[in-house]
Amino acid sequence: MGRVPAITTTLTAADRFGAWKARWGIGRLQYAVPPGLYAIGSPNPESPVVVTANYKMSYDLVRKHLDGRDVWLLVLETEGINVWCAAGKGTFGTAELVNRIRMTGLSSFVTHRRLLLPLLGAAGVAAHHVESATGFKVRFAAIRAQDLGTYLDNGQRTTEAMRQLTFTAAERLVLTPVEIVHGMGINAWLLPPLFLVGAFGHGSFSAVGGMWAVVAYLGAFLAGALLTPLFLPWLPTRSFAIKGGILGMMWAAVLHAIAGTDWSVADMLAAGLVLPSVAAFVALNFTGSTPFTSRSGVKKEMRLSLPAIGIACAAGLVVWITDFILRVGAAL
Amino acid sequence: MNGFDYLSGVTTLELDVGLCNGCRMCLNVCPHQVFAMHDKQAAIVALDKCMECGACALNCAEGAIKVDSGVGCAAGLIYEWWRTVRPFKGSNKPSSCC
After folding, report:
1. Which of A134, A217, A254, A275 has the maximal Cβ count within 10 Å?
2. Which sign, positive or negative, has the C-alpha torsion A36, A37, A40, A41?
């Protein structure tokens, strides 16, 4: 029997700052702890074994909710990815779990043969294969780490509520910063040309005109990346693209109301076509962050909506740029 | 999961009741309560709630469940498609989903 690092269950300011940074996509793919076996409290050979991923946010959440208990924590190498995504990729998987049980010598630390896994890890771990390879029985305890305490206290029984996914406004909102940060990487390439076309849109250079083009685009982007997730259950239809498209259309109307006194018909057409298609495309990308969209569903939605989004966006840009060329030509 | 439904009639989930031994594992691992027990065997009771995560099929020791699971986000699917059409297939970066 070897030695096992003991870890605390209290999160420090540095842990919270690290989680905040990961939410904003800063160093997120390097936010990991070393895989292996850890001791929480003073575990003995009868103490439960909880399994998690080596994404530091997952590890922190699990140890925080095991405060005051004596538990073994087995951390799998998921390359700094959370349980759900790593299970989908197979890194939070049967092979890694079997391998980690052997490498840590887990069977010499505990006399029982039970492992408590997060329920969302079941997409990567085949319980019957783990048992035949190692003798350890896998129990998918609960979806949320916060239910671990109740689970352990009521004799390791999973209630229906522990097995049910939720997607509250807070749970949706916390996912939006990383969408926005990733999107801004693409936006950085689009904004300079948008600014220039907007600025020269009236024949002569106008910084204000350029700024409005940028504001129009960013508004549509946020309609898809922030407002669609926030209002998700209340937006009509099941299609993310349509949900986003509706908000993009509303944004075009708002923009027209506050800044559109001198808009030409071409401006209105361009805004009415481009802004909803930008919002629809960005909203479609949020399917990847939800816990209820299926691969076949996303494929179908993409097949139906991407051509429509592409045609609307291209048509709007053609109208806008043709109008721009005509105006510049007329001014010369 | 109440309040959230995605497109209906698309899931690839299939259950061969003839192979089911009634172990309830699919009920235990499904986060959307797609399955229920009928006469000591599993039955699909909420097909359209399935998000094709694959947990049930992977954990069915009898091989009674089939589902086409995999990356389900638009960025990942665009990336998969791009890998099949692009001329240079050198790098093999994982998709940017998560």
Report:
1. A275
2. negative
pLDDT of residue A198: 87
Distance from CA of A101 to the nearest CA of B (A): 19
Q: Which stretches of chain A are DSSP H helices?
A: 13-23, 56-64, 83-89, 94-104, 106-109, 127-134, 148-153, 169-173, 176-199, 207-222, 228-230, 240-259, 265-285, 295-331
- Closest residue in B to A157 (Cα) is B28
Q: Which residues of chain B are within 8 Å of residue A122 when distances are taken between CB atoms? A: 28-29, 53, 55, 58-59
Instruction: Say which CATH topology domain B1-67 has.
Output: Alpha-Beta Plaits (3.30.70)
Interface residue A312 vs chain B (CB under 8 A) = no
Q: What ipTM was estimated for this complex?
A: 0.89
Q: Cα separation of A238 and A284, whole Å?
A: 11
pLDDT of res. B85? 77
Provide the pLDDT confidence category of residue A329 given band limits of 50, 70 and 90: confident
| Least-confidence region, from A31-40, A44-53, A286-295 | A286-295
Distance CA A173, CA A278 (A): 20
Looking at the DSSP bridge assignments, the partners of residue A116 are A50, A139
Residue A203 is predicted with a pLDDT of 67
Of A25-29, A54-58, A250-254, B32-36, where does mean pLDDT reach its minimum?
A25-29
- Every domain of chain B and the residues it spans: 1-67, 71-98
Classify domain A6-165 by CATH number: 3.40.50.11600
Mean pLDDT score of chain A: 94
Q: Please state the domain extents for chain A.
A: 6-165, 170-331
- Closest by Cα among B39, B45, B33, B46 to B20: B39
- Which residues 81-110 of A have a C-beta within 8 angstroms of B? 81-82, 84-85, 87-89
pLDDT of residue A270: 94
Vertex A243: Cα angle to A242 and A247 (nearest 5): 110
Interface test with A, best of B14, B24, B47, B73 (most A CBs within 10 A): B73
Measure the CA–CA gap between B28 and A161, rounded to whole angstroms: 12
* Residue B65 bridge partners (DSSP): B15
Q: Which residue has the tokens 């029997």?
A: A1
Average pLDDT over residues A114-122: 98
Kindly tell me if the per-residue pLDDT of B81 is higher than 70: yes
Tokens standing for residue B27: 């009920």
